[in-house]
Amino acid sequence: MDFEEVFNKERVTRKFTNRRVNEKLIAKIVEKAQQSPSLLNSQPWRAYTLMGEPLEELKKASKENIEAGVKANEDFASMLSLNWDTFPSQNMATMGASQTYFFRNKLNLFTKANNEMFNAPAIVFLTIPKTSPAWSVFDLGIFAQSIMLLAIDNGLSIMPAHSLVSYPDLVRKYARIPEGEMVGMAIGLGYPDKSAEVNDLKYVPDRVPFEKIYKLTK
Ligand SMILES: Cc1cc2nc3c(=O)[nH]c(=O)nc-3n(C[C@H](O)[C@H](O)[C@H](O)COP(=O)(O)O)c2cc1C
C-alpha cells in the first residue's frame, strides 16, 4: 500500500469480527517492527500475542474483575504521573465533549467495547523491563506505531488501548509474561465489524489545530 494511504487509514476499530488473524502474519509484522529506532539501540521491547483459547480465558477473567468492581491497576500507573498539564487535559476534555455529541449519548457502546476487549481475535501485549528509564517508554511507543502501520499495510485493523492492560497480572498469567516485565500497552488486531454501531458513530476525532502544536524558528 502507498505510505500515505496506510497513514491515513490509521484509525482505531472498536469492534472486530470473529475472523481469525494468521499468526504467521502477526509474527512477520512484529519482526519487521524490530527495525524501529531506540535509544542506543537498546530495543527494550518484547511482544506477546494472545489468541484462541487463552485469549478467551483472559477476556473472561478481565470481565469478571470489571463486574466485581476490581480497580484497574496498570503497570504504567506506578511509573507515570497522572497529573496532566493543561494542554493535553484540554485536548482530552474536548474529545470527551465530542464523544457525548457524536456518540449521541451512546457512551455505553464505547464502554461495552472496551470491556469486551473489542472482540479482538488477537491481541499483542507490549512490555519493557520493570527497571526502565522513561526513554524505554518512548521506544515502546515507536515500536507500537511500527506494528500498527505494518498491520494496516497488511490489511488488518488496529485497536491500541490501555483498557486492555487494566489488569496486568492477568495478562502476565495468560500470555506467560515474566514477573520482571511491565505490561505497558496492547494492540488488538483483526478485521472490522462493519455492522457494529460502535464503529460507525460518525465519530472521527479531530486533531488540535496545527498552529497550536508547531512552531518554526529560523
Ligand atoms: C496509548 C493509547 C491508549 C488508548 N487507550 C484506549 C482505550 O483504553 N480505549 C479506547 O476505546 N481507545 C483507546 N485509545 C484509542 C484513542 O482513543 C484513539 O486513538 C483516539 O481517540 C483517536 O482516534 P483515532 O485513532 O481513530 O483517530 C488509545 C490510544 C492510545 C494511543
How large is the radius of gyration? 18 Å
Content of β-strand: 5-15%
Give the low-confidence spans.
none
Give the helix/strand class. alpha+beta
CATH architectural grouping: 3-Layer(aba) Sandwich
* H/I helix tally: 8
Order of helices and strands, N to C? HHEHHHEHEHEH
Question: Could you please describe the fold and organization of this structure?
Answer:
The protein is α+β, with helices and mostly antiparallel strands. The protein has one domain (3-201): NADH Oxidase (3-Layer(aba) Sandwich), CATH 3.40.109. The chain contains eight helices and four strands, in the order H-H-E-H-H-H-E-H-E-H-E-H. A four-stranded antiparallel sheet has the order 1-2-4-3. Helix 2 (23-33) crosses helix 6 (134-153) and helix 3 (52-67) packs antiparallel against helix 7. It is globular and about 55 Å long. The N and C termini lie far apart (36 Å). The model has no long low-confidence stretch (mean pLDDT 91). The protein binds flavin mononucleotide (FMN).
